[in-house]
Amino acid sequence: PLKAVILIGGPQKGTRFRPLSFEVPKPLFPVAGVPMVQHHIEACAKVPGMKEILLMGFYQPNEALSRFLVSAQQEFKVPIRYLQEYAALGTGGGIYHFRDQILSGGAEAFFVLNADVCSEFPLQEMLEFRQQHGDMHSFVILGTTANRTQALNYGCIVANTGTQEVQHYVEKPSTFVSEIINCGIYLFTPAIFQHIGEVFQRNQQELALCPYLGEESSNGWQRAEVIRLEQDVFTALAGSGKLYVYKTDGFWSQIKSAGSAIYASRLYLNQYSKSHPERLAQNKPGGPVIRGNVYIHPTASIDSTAVDHTCVLNTIVGWDSTIGRWARVEGTPSDPNPNDPYAKIDSETLFRDGRLTPSITILGCSVTIPAEVVILNSIVLPHKELSRSYKNQIIL
Ligand code: GDD
Ligand code: GTP
């Protein structure tokens, strides 16, 4: 049997996602029509032998999350549970804390997936790769190629060109290490917990020697449980013959900012023409004109003349917002450089040199845009009624 863990993090991260993350936690933000992590769940549920999918994070369980879990279980016919960490335990601490739950039912191997990525999720290929290379006890990281400058923003992997064994792993290095980056998608066996356990024990010993290190939390135990898979575990495993990289040419991107959610939507929509043609809007007599890969939510009604009068480009429109006729709402896309096949999206900060970085336009929920105005590269907070045009502004 196999299992999968999706690391969804918690509320204090995802600030780059505001104001969108006010309404719904980032892992549930819709990408190509479905919640971000539904793409992960769907890919995991397809793998033969998948017994359970665990979402792991430090969000307080809420109604939106519970409803999503119930409907996803029904749709994908696999048990899905949420395991809540008592604090942010890092990318390795949570899975270590809940190791009994992950291994229950006799899991021989399990996937760990970062929630904030979009991907083709070549999980079956990772299993096959492990069978061919290495042995059934090795761990596999999904890797992809980035360009030399952007690679510095990711975990960087140096591997043996023949065997693909990981020789060096450096998380977000300050100088160039490798163009092969960590996609945040892993295949582990239960043996990974021995390696995480060693880090845990070392953390505990260090705390015993310098108790003041544990002061921030009520006891040192908690502090020792914070473990980063990347820096604490992969770096040590590199060169040991246990860690391999499976390189994919399939699409992959991080989803950090709202702009990258638009890019990720486009990547998934392209994939839908093969995997889910039924999700794409079709041109029908008397219906609106559809150009390219378009997802229309079942609750939306689009007038057949909808191509005229109002123009919305590179924008995320929150729920219950209205845009008047002849209005133009436009953002600047943050797409990767189209002339570089290995370019990734830059997760821009909101401000650069004291100025708002031109980015996609975001309308929070219940925003009203009147007729005949232009809103350009702006972020409009929820429940605003605008009366004029704006450019490069955050409208509070
Ligand atoms: N459950 C849980 N608990 N999840 C967490 C925690 C935590 O304490 N901290 C982070 N996560 C989740 C995030 O929600 C995200 O899905 C994932 O773990 C990684 O988040 P970060 O720690 O912010 O790392 P990153 O995204 O900057 O970099 C990671 O992903 C890159 C690929 O997107 C690293 O793994 C890089 O090496 C990798 O290249
Ligand atoms: P065609 O010759 O069929 O292309 O006719 P058209 O000029 O009516 O073009 P189309 O039906 O594509 O729709 C309107 C065009 O006007 C779009 O290409 C918009 O990008 C452009 N446009 C430019 N400024 C505005 C604006 O402020 N509001 C709207 N609604 N559209 C604008």
UniProtKB/TrEMBL annotation:
<protein>
    <submittedName>
        <fullName>GDP-mannose pyrophosphorylase A</fullName>
    </submittedName>
</protein>
<dbReference type="InterPro" id="IPR050486">
    <property type="entry name" value="Mannose-1P_guanyltransferase"/>
</dbReference>
<dbReference type="InterPro" id="IPR005835">
    <property type="entry name" value="NTP_transferase_dom"/>
</dbReference>
<dbReference type="Pfam" id="PF00483">
    <property type="entry name" value="NTP_transferase"/>
</dbReference>
<dbReference type="InterPro" id="IPR011004">
    <property type="entry name" value="Trimer_LpxA-like_sf"/>
</dbReference>
<dbReference type="Pfam" id="PF25087">
    <property type="entry name" value="GMPPB_C"/>
</dbReference>
<dbReference type="InterPro" id="IPR056729">
    <property type="entry name" value="GMPPB_C"/>
</dbReference>
<comment type="similarity">
    <text>Belongs to the transferase hexapeptide repeat family.</text>
</comment>
<feature type="domain" description="Nucleotidyl transferase">
    <location>
        <begin position="3"/>
        <end position="214"/>
    </location>
</feature>
<dbReference type="InterPro" id="IPR029044">
    <property type="entry name" value="Nucleotide-diphossugar_trans"/>
</dbReference>
<feature type="domain" description="Mannose-1-phosphate guanyltransferase C-terminal">
    <location>
        <begin position="307"/>
        <end position="395"/>
    </location>
</feature>
